[in-house]
Amino acid sequence: MDKNNQTKANKKWQEKNREHTRYLRNRSTARNFIKKQATLEDIEELEILLEERQYNLKEDNDE
Question: Is the pTM of this model over 0.85?
Fold first, then answer.
């Protein structure tokens, strides 16, 4: 498959899977922020947010 066809195939997949594409993009953005830019204060705040999110997900699964 040449480069142009691969690009078209990728675009078609992304359009068909918009929600998953958005999820992957957001996850990548979050990881890059944490690895490259986050300050200690940012990380402390993120830890609190992650604990809250984890608690809520567990609560949802228990229902």
Answer: no
What does each C-alpha distance from 32 to 19, 25, 28, 52 come to in angstroms? 20, 11, 6, 21
Sign of the dihedral defined by the CA atoms of residues 39, 42, 47, 53, in that order: negative
pLDDT in tens, 33-44: 999 999 999 999
Q: How many domains does the chain have?
A: 1
Range of the domain at 44: 3-62
39 backbone φψ class: left, alpha, beta (φ>0; ψ -120 to 50): beta
Q: How far is CA 27 from the centre of its chain?
A: 2
Q: What is the DSSP letter of 2?
A: -
Question: How does pLDDT run across 43-57, given as a tens digit for each residue?
Answer: 999 999 999 999 999
> What DSSP designation does 37 have?
T
